[in-house]
Design brief:
Helix content: 25-40%
Order of helices and strands: EHEHHEEHEHEHEHEHH
Number of domains: 1
Number of strands: 8
InterPro entries: P-loop_NTPase
Organism: Micromonospora aurantiaca
Radius of gyration: 17 Å
Protein name: Chromosome partitioning protein
Structural class: alpha/beta
Distance between the termini: 10 Å
């Protein structure tokens, strides 16, 4: 299954995408940084971004892809394909990847794409079309929800994931926001610091807070994917 995670403005897409990959049921999920603004995880954890997104994109265009050649094992237990921190390098690699057959890089194992902020001209937009599910991450406050309501969603299967306390009663959101709310996540500073590399990951870090809540969503997405098995986008 291929899941794309995005945000409208500073919605915590990278933190949520990493937590989702960390708790994916069954086979461990792969996390791919596909944010045109540049990757964060390499800098946060002080690891090189090559091999990474650029090498994967080039491999997809030239030969059989062995994902293991492009992965970095991050300290909190997730295998990731890292993007360069610079916008030009990351954007170029994403453009190459978006032009390739997703079966060459996204069908070996469950894959979570962190595509960063939604922008009209983003080279990552074609990746949203390829995804089985598109999750839009936003704060639960009134201003963040207003931004979601005004944003133009590139795919009709986008679903909203909020982080933090909701500024509107849940039953009123359907009338205010065109994107259905699929899950509400707690704000979890502890997990955010682990993913950002400023706190060490304990063995049980995924059992509480954001990862624990994300586990339920991952299980739901897996069930939905299995119910429509064979739909290779």
């Amino acid at each position: 299954m291929l899941v794309a995670v995005t945000s409208v403005k500073s919605g915590g897409a990278t933190t949520f995408a990493a937590a989702l990959a960390a708790v994916w049921p069954g086979e461990p999920a792969l996390l791919i940084e596909a944010d045109p603004a540049g990757g964060d995880l390499g800098g946060w954890h002080r690891v090189p971004d090559n091999p990474g997104l650029a090498s994967l994109a080039n491999a997809c265009r030239s030969r059989h892809v062995d994902l293991a050649e492009h992965l970095t094992a991050l300290p909190f237990g997730v295998d990731a394909v890292l993007a360069a921190a610079g916008r030009p390098q990351a954007s170029a690699a994403i453009g190459l990847l978006a032009d390739t057959d997703p079966a060459r890089w996204a069908k070996e194992r469950p894959t979570v794409l962190d595509v960063g902020r939604l922008e009209p001209a983003s080279p990552a937009l074609p990746l949203l079309e390829l995804a089985d599910a598109v999750l839009v991450v936003a704060g639960g406050d009134v201003l963040s929800l207003l931004r979601v309501s005004l944003a133009e969603m590139p795919v009709d299967r986008a679903r909203l994931v909020t982080v933090g306390r909701l500024g509107h009663p849940r039953e009123e959101l359907a009338a205010l926001i065109p994107v259905p709310l699929i899950a509400g996540m707690p704000w979890d500073r502890h997990s955010a610091e682990i993913i950002a590399g400023s706190r060490r990951a304990g063995k049980a870090w995924t059992r509480v807070g954001l990862p624990a809540t994300a586990r339920g969503l991952a299980a739901s997405l897996t069930r939905q994917g299995n119910s429509v098995g064979g739909d290779d986008r």
